[in-house]
Write a structure and sequence with these properties.
Layout: H1 2-27, H2 39-47, H3 51-86, H4 93-124, H5 127-147
């Protein structure tokens, strides 16, 4: 009986912890004011937008997010199709090539949408803000290239030139 009681207590504890983490992830304090964190919020704070700029920025950001979500969805669908075809022994290489070309074009569209977004932000900025925005973008680009991973924030190993230290 004691073994079962311990097991039941452990299960209840895990359920409570899962509930806590789900609440933190989907309904935590960061969403109480209706605003999300992330890169867009970081940019708006760093550039110190006035209320008019902030309103325009929020509209531009929302449109950008909708466009990016649609493109990412299309990419996922194309990749699903690609891997479904890859498992089919009778698939023609030209068909695989056509799908990979589609994926490449959608990735290009995603990059172009991101550049359009950055240009729209720059158009909102004053000269001082534009200079700060340029430095934020350069810093983010260098961090992304250094970390080698999407969404990483400098948590990877440092760059090394040459053999590792002994």
């Amino acid at each position: 009986m004691k073994k079962n009681l311990l097991l039941y207590l452990l299960v209840v504890f895990l359920i409570i912890m899962n509930g806590f983490f789900l609440f933190q992830h989907f309904g935590g304090a960061h969403k109480k004011d209706g605003k999300r964190g992330g890169p867009a919020n970081f940019i708006a704070k760093q550039l110190d937008f006035d209320s008019s700029q902030l309103k325009q920025f929020e509209k531009i950001n929302q449109e950008h997010q909708e466009n990016i979500r649609a493109i990412i969805h299309d990419i996922k669908m194309s990749k699903d199709m690609l891997f479904d075809k890859a498992l089919n022994e009778n698939v023609d290489d030209l068909e695989i090539d056509a799908i990979t070309t589609q994926i490449g074009n959608k990735e290009k569209a995603k990059d172009l949408e991101t550049v359009r977004f950055f240009k729209a932000i720059a158009a909102l900025c004053t000269e001082r803000q534009r200079a700060r925005f340029a430095s934020i973008l350069k810093e983010a680009l260098h961090q992304h290239g250094r970390s080698g991973g999407k969404g990483s924030h400098g948590g990877g190993p440092p760059d090394r030139h040459g053999p590792p230290p002994k």
